[in-house]
Amino acid sequence: MACSCSETANKIVVSVFSIIVLFFGAVWLFFGVFLVVMASQAESAIPTGSFVFIIVAGIVVVAIAILGFIGAWKRNRCMLLTFATFAGFLFVIELIAAVIVFVTQTQVG
Length: 109
What we know:
Elements: H1 5-42, H2 49-74, H3 77-108
Transmembrane segments: 12-39, 51-73, 80-103
Membrane topology: Multi-pass membrane protein
Protein name: Tetraspanin
């Protein structure tokens, strides 16, 4: 069964988007691991709970990206819908976090 041009283009777009999401998830994951390692080497009293949260968030984002990539290449509707739902949810969460940081920026500084 041959794919039409639009199906191939959609597959490529979703795959590229998944790779971008995978990259940012990997950055979060490695940044969280880096922070945990640096905190343990410094033997400081900094709580590592937020660092572990960054690691878990990175793992979740990487898993979502892999789900989207595989769903695009296998043309699995369920995987693509799950990917789109989670990607939209992550976008809303990041948007809320950005607004919170912007609003509380004046309170901290």
